[in-house]
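Check out a protein:
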Amino acid sequence: MISAVAFLTVIGRGRTPDASTFRWFAFVGAAIGAVLGGLWWVLEDATSPLVAAGVIVAADLAITGMLHLDGLADSADGLLPHLPRERRLEVMRAPDVGAFAVTIVPTVLLLRWAALASQPVEPGVLVGLWSMSRALLATVPAWVPYARADGLASPFLSGSHRSLALGVLPGAAVIVAVEPAAGAVAVAAALVAGVGVVALARRRLGGFTGDVLGAALVVTESVGLLVLTETV
């Protein structure tokens, strides 16, 4: 579990992932969601929804070290332009950002903030959604090949198994329990969106990368929040 915490948060950074790391993704996601949900619960009566939502978005970035947002930026630059496969991987590995990242990242952050600010957020929704998004990531290597010969995800790819797909169920159940009317729709839309990112990477890269996993995570959470906003 410690290796999963170190990989998904700023706590314990530098610890090498191992084959057991994926097994703890859903639990670590639930813990992050619980921290954010608790912070929201404290802030909702202490300040305006706009400020509270901004703090939650910032806190999430701080806890995760912006690792997943960086994956979203690199994936936007690598997957969206018209480029040959080899060039896409080079672009995603480069430290700079391009026009697609500059457009996509602020848009996603704005939408996440708007979704949180426009509705009374139940802390349980964040627990379920954050757990579900990471459980989805844990099962991707069991279904999709890795697009690089080496990379950030290389050390622990063997730890993924198709049975880990069941890890999305507890998070999904929490969301549906908290938001019975809209939860099922949000869960379905979020999972379709996350899988869609991976499918796009499979088509354009021949597989996934660590950046693609980060992008899929951010997209899964964001779509879930947005759908709840529309249906609540």
About this structure: The chain is about 70% helix and 0% strand.
